[in-house]
Amino acid sequence: MSSHTLKIGLIIIIALSLFTLFSEEVSTPVTDENRLSDNDILAEFNGGKILRKDLDAKISKLPPQIQGRYKTVDSQIQILDIMATEDVFFAEAISRNIDKDPIVLERLDRAKRQFFIQEYYKRFVADAVVITEQAREKYYSDNIKSFFISPYLSINYIQAENEVAALAALNELKAGTPFEEVSEKYNQNTYAKGLKGKVKNIRLNGQIPGVGDDPELDAYISQSTVDPNTFHGPYQTKTGWHIFSTLERVEGRQRPYAEVADDINSRLRPVMEKELLDMIVENLKQKYSVTVDTLLVKDLNLQEKVTDENILNKKLVDSPNADLVFTVRQILDIYSKMPPQEQMFHSKSGANSLITQELSRNLMFLDSEGRNFETVLENNEDYIQTKRYHILQEAYKRLVVDAIQV
Alpha helices, DSSP H only, in 96-236? Predict the structure, then answer.
Protein backbone atom coordinates (compact mmCIF):
# COMPACT_ATOMS: atom_id res chain seq x y z
CA MET A 1 0.00 0.00 0.00
CA SER A 2 1.34 3.45 -0.93
CA SER A 3 1.94 6.11 1.72
CA HIS A 4 -0.73 8.24 0.04
CA THR A 5 -3.32 5.45 0.37
CA LEU A 6 -2.27 4.90 3.98
CA LYS A 7 -2.82 8.56 4.77
CA ILE A 8 -6.28 8.45 3.18
CA GLY A 9 -7.09 5.45 5.34
CA LEU A 10 -5.84 7.11 8.52
CA ILE A 11 -7.84 10.24 7.81
CA ILE A 12 -10.96 8.11 7.41
CA ILE A 13 -10.25 6.36 10.72
CA ILE A 14 -9.80 9.73 12.44
CA ALA A 15 -13.00 11.00 10.91
CA LEU A 16 -14.95 7.94 12.00
CA SER A 17 -13.65 8.33 15.55
CA LEU A 18 -14.82 11.92 15.63
CA PHE A 19 -18.13 11.57 13.82
CA THR A 20 -20.24 11.67 16.94
CA LEU A 21 -18.19 14.57 18.32
CA PHE A 22 -19.21 16.91 15.50
CA SER A 23 -22.28 15.18 14.08
CA GLU A 24 -24.61 17.99 15.02
CA GLU A 25 -22.81 20.30 12.59
CA VAL A 26 -23.25 17.99 9.58
CA SER A 27 -26.35 18.33 7.42
CA THR A 28 -28.31 15.43 5.99
CA PRO A 29 -26.74 14.31 2.70
CA VAL A 30 -28.64 14.56 -0.56
CA THR A 31 -29.35 11.14 -2.06
CA ASP A 32 -31.70 11.97 -4.94
CA GLU A 33 -30.89 9.36 -7.61
CA ASN A 34 -31.86 11.80 -10.38
CA ARG A 35 -29.07 14.25 -9.50
CA LEU A 36 -26.16 13.13 -11.66
CA SER A 37 -24.17 16.30 -12.17
CA ASP A 38 -20.59 16.44 -10.86
CA ASN A 39 -21.50 19.74 -9.21
CA ASP A 40 -24.51 18.41 -7.30
CA ILE A 41 -24.31 19.45 -3.66
CA LEU A 42 -24.51 16.26 -1.62
CA ALA A 43 -23.85 17.81 1.79
CA GLU A 44 -23.61 21.30 3.29
CA PHE A 45 -22.36 22.41 6.68
CA ASN A 46 -21.26 25.59 8.33
CA GLY A 47 -18.19 26.61 6.36
CA GLY A 48 -18.37 24.33 3.35
CA LYS A 49 -20.10 21.88 1.05
CA ILE A 50 -19.36 18.56 -0.62
CA LEU A 51 -20.08 17.97 -4.31
CA ARG A 52 -20.71 14.69 -6.10
CA LYS A 53 -17.31 14.95 -7.80
CA ASP A 54 -15.68 15.27 -4.36
CA LEU A 55 -17.31 12.01 -3.29
CA ASP A 56 -16.22 10.25 -6.49
CA ALA A 57 -12.67 11.55 -6.05
CA LYS A 58 -12.54 10.31 -2.44
CA ILE A 59 -13.70 6.82 -3.46
CA SER A 60 -11.21 6.72 -6.35
CA LYS A 61 -8.35 7.21 -3.86
CA LEU A 62 -9.30 4.16 -1.80
CA PRO A 63 -7.39 0.91 -2.47
CA PRO A 64 -8.71 -0.60 -5.76
CA GLN A 65 -9.65 -3.87 -4.08
CA ILE A 66 -12.23 -2.17 -1.84
CA GLN A 67 -13.61 0.53 -4.18
CA GLY A 68 -16.31 -1.89 -5.34
CA ARG A 69 -17.84 -1.82 -1.86
CA TYR A 70 -18.78 1.83 -2.32
CA LYS A 71 -21.03 1.56 -5.35
CA THR A 72 -24.27 1.40 -3.35
CA VAL A 73 -26.17 4.39 -2.02
CA ASP A 74 -25.80 3.29 1.61
CA SER A 75 -22.04 2.84 1.35
CA GLN A 76 -21.65 6.17 -0.43
CA ILE A 77 -23.64 7.86 2.33
CA GLN A 78 -21.17 6.34 4.79
CA ILE A 79 -18.23 7.88 2.92
CA LEU A 80 -20.11 11.15 2.62
CA ASP A 81 -20.62 11.23 6.40
CA ILE A 82 -16.91 10.63 6.88
CA MET A 83 -15.99 13.39 4.43
CA ALA A 84 -18.30 15.88 6.09
CA THR A 85 -16.98 15.01 9.53
CA GLU A 86 -13.42 15.28 8.30
CA ASP A 87 -14.09 18.72 6.77
CA VAL A 88 -15.73 19.98 9.96
CA PHE A 89 -12.90 18.66 12.06
CA PHE A 90 -10.34 20.20 9.69
CA ALA A 91 -12.11 23.56 9.99
CA GLU A 92 -11.94 23.25 13.78
CA ALA A 93 -8.21 22.53 13.54
CA ILE A 94 -7.65 25.62 11.40
CA SER A 95 -9.66 27.77 13.82
CA ARG A 96 -7.30 26.63 16.59
CA ASN A 97 -4.23 27.46 14.45
CA ILE A 98 -3.04 23.88 14.55
CA ASP A 99 -1.85 24.32 10.96
CA LYS A 100 0.65 26.89 12.29
CA ASP A 101 1.92 24.69 15.10
CA PRO A 102 5.73 24.18 14.97
CA ILE A 103 5.33 20.39 15.05
CA VAL A 104 2.97 20.46 12.08
CA LEU A 105 5.12 22.98 10.21
CA GLU A 106 8.17 20.77 10.67
CA ARG A 107 6.29 17.79 9.22
CA LEU A 108 5.05 19.89 6.32
CA ASP A 109 8.57 21.12 5.62
CA ARG A 110 9.74 17.51 5.35
CA ALA A 111 6.85 16.72 3.02
CA LYS A 112 7.57 19.84 0.96
CA ARG A 113 11.21 18.84 0.67
CA GLN A 114 10.26 15.40 -0.62
CA PHE A 115 7.84 16.83 -3.19
CA PHE A 116 10.46 19.33 -4.39
CA ILE A 117 13.05 16.59 -4.86
CA GLN A 118 10.56 14.42 -6.73
CA GLU A 119 9.54 17.30 -8.99
CA TYR A 120 13.17 18.24 -9.63
CA TYR A 121 14.03 14.67 -10.58
CA LYS A 122 10.97 14.43 -12.83
CA ARG A 123 11.70 17.67 -14.68
CA PHE A 124 15.44 17.45 -15.12
CA VAL A 125 16.10 13.71 -15.13
CA ALA A 126 13.13 11.43 -15.89
CA ASP A 127 11.43 13.73 -18.41
CA ALA A 128 14.76 14.77 -19.92
CA VAL A 129 15.84 11.26 -20.86
CA VAL A 130 15.00 10.41 -24.46
CA ILE A 131 15.79 6.90 -25.61
CA THR A 132 16.60 7.00 -29.32
CA GLU A 133 16.72 4.08 -31.72
CA GLN A 134 20.46 4.57 -31.98
CA ALA A 135 20.83 4.33 -28.20
CA ARG A 136 18.77 1.14 -28.12
CA GLU A 137 20.81 -0.46 -30.88
CA LYS A 138 24.07 0.46 -29.15
CA TYR A 139 22.85 -0.97 -25.85
CA TYR A 140 21.86 -4.19 -27.60
CA SER A 141 25.26 -4.43 -29.26
CA ASP A 142 27.17 -3.68 -26.05
CA ASN A 143 25.11 -6.15 -23.99
CA ILE A 144 24.26 -8.79 -26.58
CA LYS A 145 25.24 -11.66 -24.28
CA SER A 146 22.60 -10.63 -21.76
CA PHE A 147 19.94 -11.26 -24.44
CA PHE A 148 21.03 -14.86 -24.97
CA ILE A 149 18.64 -17.51 -23.71
CA SER A 150 20.71 -20.28 -22.19
CA PRO A 151 20.00 -23.90 -23.10
CA TYR A 152 18.33 -26.05 -20.50
CA LEU A 153 18.08 -29.76 -19.92
CA SER A 154 15.95 -32.17 -17.91
CA ILE A 155 17.39 -35.41 -16.54
CA ASN A 156 16.56 -38.50 -14.54
CA TYR A 157 19.09 -38.28 -11.73
CA ILE A 158 20.35 -40.42 -8.85
CA GLN A 159 23.01 -39.33 -6.36
CA ALA A 160 24.26 -42.50 -4.75
CA GLU A 161 25.79 -42.90 -1.31
CA ASN A 162 29.05 -44.41 -2.64
CA GLU A 163 30.55 -46.25 -5.59
CA VAL A 164 29.11 -49.61 -4.55
CA ALA A 165 25.59 -48.20 -4.31
CA ALA A 166 26.04 -46.34 -7.60
CA LEU A 167 27.07 -49.52 -9.46
CA ALA A 168 24.20 -51.46 -7.91
CA ALA A 169 21.71 -48.78 -9.00
CA LEU A 170 23.14 -48.73 -12.53
CA ASN A 171 22.91 -52.54 -12.82
CA GLU A 172 19.26 -52.49 -11.75
CA LEU A 173 18.47 -49.76 -14.29
CA LYS A 174 20.17 -51.72 -17.07
CA ALA A 175 18.20 -54.79 -15.99
CA GLY A 176 14.97 -52.91 -16.67
CA THR A 177 13.89 -51.92 -13.16
CA PRO A 178 11.68 -48.79 -13.40
CA PHE A 179 13.67 -45.63 -12.73
CA GLU A 180 11.29 -44.44 -9.98
CA GLU A 181 11.88 -47.63 -8.00
CA VAL A 182 15.67 -47.39 -8.32
CA SER A 183 15.61 -43.72 -7.37
CA GLU A 184 13.48 -44.42 -4.31
CA LYS A 185 15.92 -47.15 -3.24
CA TYR A 186 19.30 -45.51 -3.91
CA ASN A 187 18.84 -41.74 -4.27
CA GLN A 188 20.53 -39.80 -1.45
CA ASN A 189 19.59 -36.41 -2.92
CA THR A 190 16.40 -35.37 -1.14
CA TYR A 191 15.62 -32.67 -3.74
CA ALA A 192 15.78 -35.12 -6.65
CA LYS A 193 14.13 -37.92 -4.69
CA GLY A 194 11.20 -35.66 -3.90
CA LEU A 195 10.76 -35.12 -7.64
CA LYS A 196 10.99 -38.87 -8.33
CA GLY A 197 14.46 -38.30 -9.74
CA LYS A 198 13.41 -35.80 -12.44
CA VAL A 199 15.56 -32.67 -12.28
CA LYS A 200 14.66 -29.84 -14.65
CA ASN A 201 16.01 -26.45 -15.69
CA ILE A 202 19.69 -27.38 -15.85
CA ARG A 203 21.19 -24.30 -17.52
CA LEU A 204 24.74 -25.58 -18.15
CA ASN A 205 26.20 -22.82 -16.04
CA GLY A 206 27.90 -25.07 -13.51
CA GLN A 207 24.94 -25.00 -11.11
CA ILE A 208 22.79 -28.12 -10.87
CA PRO A 209 19.38 -27.73 -9.14
CA GLY A 210 19.44 -29.71 -5.90
CA VAL A 211 23.17 -30.42 -6.21
CA GLY A 212 24.75 -26.98 -6.28
CA ASP A 213 28.03 -25.87 -7.79
CA ASP A 214 29.49 -28.78 -9.77
CA PRO A 215 31.10 -27.79 -13.11
CA GLU A 216 32.40 -31.33 -13.65
CA LEU A 217 28.95 -32.93 -13.43
CA ASP A 218 27.61 -30.06 -15.54
CA ALA A 219 30.12 -30.92 -18.25
CA TYR A 220 29.07 -34.60 -18.25
CA ILE A 221 25.42 -33.56 -18.64
CA SER A 222 26.31 -31.11 -21.41
CA GLN A 223 28.04 -33.85 -23.43
CA SER A 224 25.10 -36.27 -23.17
CA THR A 225 22.44 -36.94 -25.80
CA VAL A 226 18.69 -37.13 -25.25
CA ASP A 227 17.72 -40.73 -24.50
CA PRO A 228 15.82 -41.62 -21.31
CA ASN A 229 17.02 -45.24 -21.54
CA THR A 230 20.75 -44.47 -21.80
CA PHE A 231 22.24 -44.01 -18.33
CA HIS A 232 25.54 -42.22 -17.79
CA GLY A 233 27.89 -42.92 -14.94
CA PRO A 234 28.57 -43.59 -12.27
CA TYR A 235 30.66 -40.39 -12.15
CA GLN A 236 32.40 -39.20 -9.01
CA THR A 237 32.76 -35.46 -8.55
CA LYS A 238 33.25 -33.20 -5.55
CA THR A 239 29.54 -33.50 -4.71
CA GLY A 240 29.36 -37.32 -4.76
CA TRP A 241 28.47 -40.23 -7.06
CA HIS A 242 26.06 -39.56 -9.94
CA ILE A 243 23.98 -41.47 -12.47
CA PHE A 244 21.67 -39.79 -14.98
CA SER A 245 19.88 -40.05 -18.30
CA THR A 246 18.91 -37.03 -20.38
CA LEU A 247 15.18 -36.54 -20.97
CA GLU A 248 15.05 -33.19 -22.76
CA ARG A 249 17.41 -30.64 -24.23
CA VAL A 250 16.31 -27.21 -25.47
CA GLU A 251 19.12 -25.40 -27.25
CA GLY A 252 19.95 -21.82 -26.38
CA ARG A 253 19.32 -18.98 -28.77
CA GLN A 254 20.20 -15.36 -29.27
CA ARG A 255 17.13 -13.12 -29.01
CA PRO A 256 17.07 -10.73 -32.00
CA TYR A 257 16.92 -6.97 -31.52
CA ALA A 258 13.31 -6.70 -32.69
CA GLU A 259 12.22 -9.19 -30.04
CA VAL A 260 13.82 -7.33 -27.12
CA ALA A 261 13.10 -3.68 -27.99
CA ASP A 262 10.71 -3.19 -25.05
CA ASP A 263 13.07 -5.01 -22.72
CA ILE A 264 15.89 -2.70 -23.81
CA ASN A 265 13.81 0.36 -22.92
CA SER A 266 13.19 -0.90 -19.38
CA ARG A 267 16.88 -1.73 -18.93
CA LEU A 268 18.31 1.36 -20.60
CA ARG A 269 16.15 4.01 -18.95
CA PRO A 270 17.54 3.62 -15.40
CA VAL A 271 21.07 3.57 -16.84
CA MET A 272 20.52 6.81 -18.75
CA GLU A 273 18.73 8.43 -15.80
CA LYS A 274 21.65 7.61 -13.52
CA GLU A 275 24.16 8.99 -16.01
CA LEU A 276 22.18 12.21 -16.35
CA LEU A 277 21.68 12.53 -12.60
CA ASP A 278 25.41 12.02 -11.98
CA MET A 279 26.18 14.79 -14.46
CA ILE A 280 23.62 17.15 -12.87
CA VAL A 281 24.98 16.46 -9.39
CA GLU A 282 28.54 17.16 -10.51
CA ASN A 283 27.41 20.48 -12.01
CA LEU A 284 25.53 21.36 -8.82
CA LYS A 285 28.58 20.53 -6.72
CA GLN A 286 30.55 23.08 -8.72
CA LYS A 287 27.73 25.61 -8.55
CA TYR A 288 27.56 25.42 -4.75
CA SER A 289 31.32 24.92 -4.21
CA VAL A 290 30.99 21.46 -2.70
CA THR A 291 34.12 19.53 -1.76
CA VAL A 292 34.27 15.90 -0.60
CA ASP A 293 37.01 14.47 1.58
CA THR A 294 37.40 11.25 -0.41
CA LEU A 295 40.01 9.76 1.92
CA LEU A 296 37.82 10.27 4.99
CA VAL A 297 34.82 8.87 3.10
CA LYS A 298 36.82 5.80 2.12
CA ASP A 299 37.92 5.16 5.70
CA LEU A 300 34.45 5.57 7.22
CA ASN A 301 32.88 2.30 8.36
CA LEU A 302 29.14 2.78 8.79
CA GLN A 303 28.85 -0.21 11.11
CA GLU A 304 31.64 0.88 13.42
CA LYS A 305 30.70 2.84 16.53
CA VAL A 306 32.65 6.11 16.72
CA THR A 307 33.03 7.88 20.08
CA ASP A 308 35.94 10.23 19.35
CA GLU A 309 34.44 13.74 19.15
CA ASN A 310 37.25 14.94 16.89
CA ILE A 311 36.40 12.27 14.35
CA LEU A 312 32.63 12.76 14.70
CA ASN A 313 32.99 16.47 13.94
CA LYS A 314 35.15 15.99 10.86
CA LYS A 315 33.53 17.15 7.62
CA LEU A 316 32.98 14.52 4.98
CA VAL A 317 31.37 17.12 2.72
CA ASP A 318 31.99 20.84 2.91
CA SER A 319 30.40 23.87 1.28
CA PRO A 320 29.71 27.56 2.00
CA ASN A 321 26.05 26.47 2.22
CA ALA A 322 25.41 24.83 5.60
CA ASP A 323 22.69 22.58 4.14
CA LEU A 324 25.35 20.84 2.07
CA VAL A 325 27.77 20.13 4.91
CA PHE A 326 27.91 16.58 6.25
CA THR A 327 29.99 15.53 9.24
CA VAL A 328 30.81 11.99 10.27
CA ARG A 329 28.27 12.38 13.10
CA GLN A 330 25.48 13.37 10.71
CA ILE A 331 26.08 10.49 8.31
CA LEU A 332 26.27 7.92 11.09
CA ASP A 333 23.06 9.34 12.57
CA ILE A 334 21.28 9.08 9.21
CA TYR A 335 22.52 5.52 8.81
CA SER A 336 21.36 4.53 12.30
CA LYS A 337 17.78 5.64 11.54
CA MET A 338 17.51 3.71 8.29
CA PRO A 339 15.49 0.49 7.93
CA PRO A 340 17.63 -2.69 8.16
CA GLN A 341 17.43 -3.37 4.42
CA GLU A 342 18.79 0.07 3.55
CA GLN A 343 21.51 -0.29 6.17
CA MET A 344 22.52 -3.61 4.63
CA PHE A 345 22.72 -2.05 1.16
CA HIS A 346 24.89 0.88 2.27
CA SER A 347 27.09 -1.23 4.52
CA LYS A 348 27.93 -3.44 1.54
CA SER A 349 28.43 -0.63 -0.98
CA GLY A 350 30.28 1.61 1.48
CA ALA A 351 29.79 5.03 3.04
CA ASN A 352 30.25 6.74 -0.33
CA SER A 353 26.88 5.47 -1.59
CA LEU A 354 25.05 6.91 1.43
CA ILE A 355 26.90 10.23 1.28
CA THR A 356 26.27 10.52 -2.46
CA GLN A 357 22.58 9.80 -1.94
CA GLU A 358 22.12 12.38 0.81
CA LEU A 359 24.23 15.02 -0.92
CA SER A 360 22.35 14.53 -4.20
CA ARG A 361 19.00 14.98 -2.48
CA ASN A 362 20.15 18.13 -0.68
CA LEU A 363 21.58 19.58 -3.88
CA MET A 364 18.35 18.97 -5.79
CA PHE A 365 16.26 20.49 -3.01
CA LEU A 366 18.50 23.54 -2.69
CA ASP A 367 18.48 24.13 -6.43
CA SER A 368 14.73 23.61 -6.65
CA GLU A 369 14.07 26.40 -4.15
CA GLY A 370 15.27 28.94 -6.70
CA ARG A 371 13.04 27.57 -9.45
CA ASN A 372 9.59 28.62 -8.18
CA PHE A 373 8.49 25.10 -7.30
CA GLU A 374 6.03 26.55 -4.79
CA THR A 375 3.49 26.93 -7.59
CA VAL A 376 3.68 23.18 -8.18
CA LEU A 377 2.48 22.45 -4.66
CA GLU A 378 -0.50 24.79 -4.87
CA ASN A 379 -2.38 22.37 -7.15
CA ASN A 380 -0.64 19.12 -6.26
CA GLU A 381 -3.37 16.86 -4.91
CA ASP A 382 -0.92 14.55 -3.16
CA TYR A 383 0.73 17.44 -1.32
CA ILE A 384 -2.64 18.98 -0.40
CA GLN A 385 -3.77 15.63 1.00
CA THR A 386 -0.47 15.19 2.86
CA LYS A 387 -0.81 18.63 4.42
CA ARG A 388 -4.38 17.87 5.43
CA TYR A 389 -3.31 14.55 6.91
CA HIS A 390 -0.63 16.09 9.15
CA ILE A 391 -3.01 18.80 10.40
CA LEU A 392 -5.76 16.27 11.15
CA GLN A 393 -3.29 13.92 12.81
CA GLU A 394 -2.10 16.59 15.24
CA ALA A 395 -5.65 17.83 15.83
CA TYR A 396 -6.82 14.30 16.62
CA LYS A 397 -3.97 13.90 19.10
CA ARG A 398 -4.81 17.14 20.90
CA LEU A 399 -8.57 17.08 20.84
CA VAL A 400 -9.15 13.38 21.38
CA VAL A 401 -6.14 11.36 22.52
CA ASP A 402 -4.76 13.96 24.95
CA ALA A 403 -8.26 14.65 26.28
CA ILE A 404 -8.88 11.05 27.30
CA GLN A 405 -8.61 10.54 31.04
CA VAL A 406 -8.05 7.01 32.29
Answer: 102-121, 133-142, 163-174, 179-186, 190-194, 215-223
CB atoms within 10 A of CB 188: 14
Give the confidence band of 353 by pLDDT, cuts at 50, 70, 90: very high
Name which of 62, 292, 249 is nearest 152 in CA terms: 249
In this predicted model, which residue has the larger pLDDT, 387 or 40?
A: 387
Amino acid at 396: Y
Q: Which of 75, 43, 46 is nearest to 59 (CA)?
A: 75
* Beta-carbon contacts of residue 147 (< 8 Å; ≥ 6 apart): 140, 254, 255, 260, 263
Residue 61, pLDDT > 90, answer no
Distance CA 253, CA 258 (A): 14
* End-to-end CA, the chain: 34
Question: 201 and 214 in contact (C-beta within 8 Å)?
Answer: no
Measured in whole angstroms, the distance separating CA 151 from the mean position of its chain's CA atoms is 31
> Length of the chain, please?
406
Burial-class residue 4 by CB neighbours within 10 Å (0-12, 13-18, 19+). Answer: middle
CB 393, CB 114: distance < 8 Å: no
